[in-house]
Amino acid sequence: MATPEYTPFVFLLLLFQSSVWGFPVCQTPQESPTCGYKSCHATKPGMLNVHLVPHTHDDVGWLKTVDQYFYGDRNDIQHAGVQYILDSVVDQLLKNPDRRFIYVETAFFYRWWKQQTDDMQNTVKQLVNEGRLEFVNGGWCMSDEATTHYSAVIDQMTMGLRFLNDTFGHCGRPRVAWHIDPFGHAREHASMFAQMGYDGFFFGRLDYQDRNRRMVAREQEMLWRASESLTPPMADLFTGILPNGYNPPEGFCWDQSCDDPPIRDDPDLEDYNVDDVVTRFLHIAHGQALVYKTNHIIMTMGSDFQYENANLWYKNLDKLIRYVNQMQSNGSEVNVLYSTPSCYLQELHRANLTWPLKGDDFFPYADSAHDFWTGYFTSRPALKRYERISNSYLQTCKQLEVLGGPISRKGPFGAGDSETLKKAMAVAQHHDAVSGTEKQHVANDYARKLANGWAHCQVLVSNTLSSLSGSSAPRVYCEHLNISVCPLTETMNVYNPLARPVSWPVRLPVNGTAYRISDVVPVSQATAAVRRGRGYAVNELLFQVQAPPLGYSTYSVSLLQNGPPSPQSSPLPRAPKASFSPQPSSLLSLCASIVTLRDFLSSLFCVCLSRYNASDGNNSESIQMSGAYIFRPNTSTPFIISKTAKIETLQNSVVQEVRQWFSPWVSQVVRLYTDSRALELEWTVGPVPIGDDLGKEVISRLDSSINSSGVFYTDSNGREVLQRRKDYRPTWNLRQSEPIAGNYYPINSRAYIKDDKDQLTVVTDRSQGGGSIQDGSLEIMLHRRLLYDDVRGVGEPLNETSDIYPEGLVVRGRHLLSLSPPATAADTHRPLAQEVVLQPSSMDFEKEFSGLQAVLPPAVHLLTVSQWDQDTVLLRLEHQYQASESKEHSQPVTVNLQKLFSTLDVLGVSEMNLSANQWKDEMTRLDWKAESGTHHTGVTNQLSAYSAL
Ligand SMILES: *[C@@H]1O[C@H](CO)[C@@H](O)[C@H](O)[C@H]1NC(C)=O
Ligand SMILES: *[C@@H]1O[C@H](CO)[C@@H](O)[C@H](O)[C@H]1NC(C)=O
Ligand SMILES: *[C@@H]1O[C@H](CO)[C@@H](O)[C@H](O)[C@H]1NC(C)=O
Ligand SMILES: *[C@@H]1O[C@H](CO)[C@@H](O)[C@H](O)[C@H]1NC(C)=O
Ligand SMILES: *[C@@H]1O[C@H](CO)[C@@H](O)[C@H](O)[C@H]1NC(C)=O
Ligand SMILES: [Zn+2]
Q1: CA 12 to ligand 5 center in whole angstroms
Q2: Sign of CA dihedral 34, 35, 36, 40
Q3: Is the beta carbon of 330 within 6 A of some atom in ligand 1?
Q4: What is the structure's pLDDT at 596?
Q5: Which of 27, 32, 135, 165 to mutate to test the pocket of ligand 5 (most atoms within 8 A of CB)?
Q6: Which residues contact 464 (CB under 8 A, 6 or more apart)?
Q7: Is 723 helix (H, G, I), strand (E, B) or coil?
Q8: Does the pLDDT of residue 938 top 80, yes or no?
Q9: Which pLDDT tens digit goes with each residue over 346-356?
Q10: pLDDT in tens, 748-788
Q11: Residue 676: its pLDDT value, please?
């Protein structure tokens, strides 16, 4: 299949294994006369129209778990019960057909829906068909934008939107994306929303300086050109900033949780206040109209978990509308109406204006001079890693569900499914989940849900393996690779979820000392310390494996000799040499012991593990402290943990490594695998000491001779890369007030600095925050432990402990460093980043197998293979290079779908939008015109078009 135009993703529904030949029927959607834009209330062209949008913001976990929020459990923590909200709103909508409500989080709506009677379901369908209840956004949750990976965001959006389409059809499709709470906004999210068919996007939070400028310039509504590779308008998204976050205007909150006066409209009573309410309202409306462009303005009438007793809100809103509009007979030119974001959007579109163009993103977010929300880029690093590997395992699980067929879900190992992990991953994308900004007990709940999802997938995977191999021998999983002993049998297998072959270093914890085909290395001191007596393995098996695309390969790792390990008795000549003397910690001196590293690192001076001390609020400029959301070091100079390190070196046929101990709580392994394209830095941090009553934020800083001139690059949600410049924002003149925190950006999978000759790229294994504070330097925050709450609502210090680490959590992770000429750097780091995101998993299996007939071209990433219906599979192919990123790979590519899979016959193909809730040929979006000459410079020197399939 060849597509001439440039598209980044192609989304297809493949029909296979079906007895009936044919394409899925692409009917024109049944046009209900009243839902969607047609259901909007009339507005008055000559007047200022105020769109009141009743809404509730229901976090899919934050201070309480998602289940506690749904049922209204633990109201002692926070009064919030989503089931009552939906009950009450539906009831109130039925009382007056003018009323409107929007609902956002499908994770909650889905639970509620399942518990309703047929009658109630029909009633709700009626409300949806008439546009009185409208879904906006509609993903399973409202995802975080800084710390999520695009593949997991697409999955969670697909799940929510599919439920809405399956349940409500055409009228259930949201027209508007709605991210009112996330703490900064990613360009890749806007690009995805555009490709999911949304007509517009609204949000609440942006930098206070940016907002002030936009208010004066009336630029709070704009056209976001969200990709420098896609041809406009493919990734153009109309974007609006809401006037008051997502809260009602001051004095107009009529929820049971608010204290504003109700409308007292009995003229016989002394406290009659209609005139006062109307006057105040008109004042606010006129003020708001001054900072927006059209004669339409929007007011968000609701907030967190509001409308549990919806009568309070609606009774007062009915009156507000009546009394404000009555003034029209006395010459008032303000018209108030019940509305929704899409009805407001439709009026902006009708205004037929041109809009300022936005090319960069909305990071970092500061709500005041010393209050940068850049800490959560790293908060809860262990949860961030677990979320990332769970995504990898979910993709493997979905692939094996397709390759195995029905037996995968019900087979010799019992009933397995991918649904449980899909749902757990979907809630984990929430803006208080993977972001790390939830309470500790809620973080534990997300992790527990993921673990449960893994267990369900493991049954599915076992069933598929046994079906493909024809053997029902028990499967062995080697899961907790950093602690357990792998019970090795004769063979061991590796599954590769990527569509091209990979070579992968496998490390397996074992007891024995000598194995065929493999090197054995002793477990390092740092690893032994991390384990805390759990796990017994004293050695690690270390070997390189190759695995075919979407497939397995088998390795024989039989034991040659068992018994207690002793280096002397090891038959391997390359036993590690330990030298435990303090050494300067700079890499150059390390290089003396590893020859190959010297070449690799000729322009890298130092990998310095350092720390900032957190601000405790005791500061003359501001009382803001560092916390789960906010990063605020108390000085701008990081402290190097130790200038010397105890080191141990190791060299064998697979790897050369230097193990460095800087302090009892900070260590690092510098590792170079034979034939590797990258140097691996494995960091271990914790328990972060707090005996000095100072919170600490630990960074890894790479100092190089690269002449980066204040410029560096970070990815957006793991996909396109944006240019960053120190103390600079592309769209306004920044007054920098936090020299470190104000220069931090989210890094989801990679970051780099470069000059004419060299590019130093770091690929991360989870989302982290980082910046380039000095030229030639790139720093990445690894772990944070803080003693104060940062007063943004979570109400706990970020002071992570666990059963195993009661005195403070220990976290380990990897950075992969590559150094290449800038022109070819992407050829290395793009595939490398994909390999870190989609990891091979090792499991027991008897024969080599590949689900693909042929390897996909290097530019093409197989993003999704997932069972859709009984006879259909959802397939997403992605061109993974930006337009001018690689001479070799940024070119259009052709893939033959007919000959793609080895086990499936493709009977038909139908193209869909990115979120798979619309057929491509039905997809029409509102078109918007950009002002000419507003494209701000500063994010340039990349890309002009995406290459395609
Ligand atoms: C309109 O103005 C008249 C005369 O000032 C006044 O009597 C009447 O109450 C006003 N109506 C409203 C709705 O305020
Ligand atoms: C929109 O504005 C353009 C000029 O900018 C005009 O040519 C066009 O007719 C207008 N369209 C509508 C529907 O008013
Ligand atoms: C080997 O591993 C097992 C657990 O799998 C453990 O019980 C045993 O003590 C270990 N042996 C040695 C020598 O560490
Ligand atoms: C942080 O955790 C440690 C270990 O549980 C505890 O002793 C300490 O009191 C906690 N500090 C704060 C400020 O919560
Ligand atoms: C959406 O749902 C309708 C009604 O069930 C169905 O006909 C249509 O094919 C669905 N659309 C997609 C893209 O799945
Ligand atoms: Zn929220």
Answers
A1: 14
A2: positive
A3: yes
A4: 46
A5: 165
A6: 400, 401, 403, 404, 407, 408, 411
A7: strand
A8: no
A9: 999 999 999 99
A10: 999 999 999 989 999 999 999 999 999 999 999 999 999 99
A11: 79
Average pLDDT over residues 502-523: 75
Q: Is residue 181 flagged as an active site residue?
A: yes
- Confidence at residue 939, expressed as pLDDT on a 0 to 100 scale: 33
**pLDDT of res. 712:** 98
| Closest ligand to Cα 438 | 6
Can you list the domains of the chain with their CATH numbers? 9-362 (3.20.110.10), 382-565+851-867 (2.60.40.1180), 590-837 (2.70.98.30)
* Ligand nearest, relative to CA of residue 616: 4
Alpha carbon distances (Å) from 772 to 642, 670, 702, 708: 21, 22, 9, 9
Percentage of the chain exceeding pLDDT 70? 85
DSSP string, 921-932: GG------EEPT
What global pTM score does this model have? Answer: 0.92
Query: In angstroms, what CA-CA distances link 373 with 54, 59, 436, 438, 792?
Result: 28, 18, 12, 14, 10
Question: Using CA positions, which residue lies closest to atom 4 of ligand 3?
Answer: 536
- Regarding the beta carbon of 940 and ligand 1, being less than 6 Å apart is answered no
Whether the CB-CB separation of 780 and 753 falls below 8 Å is answered with: no
Closest atom, ligand 4, to C-alpha of 787: 13
Q: 173 C-alpha vs ligand 3 centroid, how far in Å?
A: 56
Which atom of ligand 5 is nearest the CA belonging to 917?
A: 13
Cis peptide bond prior to 573, omega within 30° of 0: no
Overall average pLDDT of the 73-86 stretch: 98
Whether 11 shows a pLDDT value over 60: the answer reads no
Which residues does ligand 4 sit against, CB inside 6 Å?
787, 797, 799, 801, 807
Length of the chain: 949
Query: HSE on the CB side for 190, CA within 13 Å?
Result: 30
620 Cβ closer than 6 Å to some ligand 1 atom: no
The answer to whether the CB of 898 is under 6 A from ligand 1 is no
Q: How much is the pLDDT for 893?
A: 86
Which residue out of 799, 802, 805, 809 has the highest number of ligand 4 atoms within 8 Å of its CB and is therefore the one to mutate? 799
Cβ(538) – ligand 3 distance below 6 Å: yes
CA 909/CA 717 separation, integer angstroms: 29
- Does pLDDT of 6 surpass 70? no
Which of the pair, 330 or 8, is modelled with greater confidence? Answer: 330
The answer to whether the beta carbons of residues 833 and 749 sit under 8 Å apart is yes
Q: Which ligand 4 atom minimizes the distance to the CA of 799?
A: 1
Out of 181, 255, 445, 844, the active site residue is 181
Residue 308, judged by CB atoms within 10 A of its CB (0-12, 13-18, 19+), counts as buried
Q: How many helices (H) and strands (E) in the chain? A: 17, 45
As a whole number, mean pLDDT of residues 265-291 equals 97
Q: What was the pLDDT predicted at 855?
A: 86
275 CA from centroid of ligand 1 (Å): 10
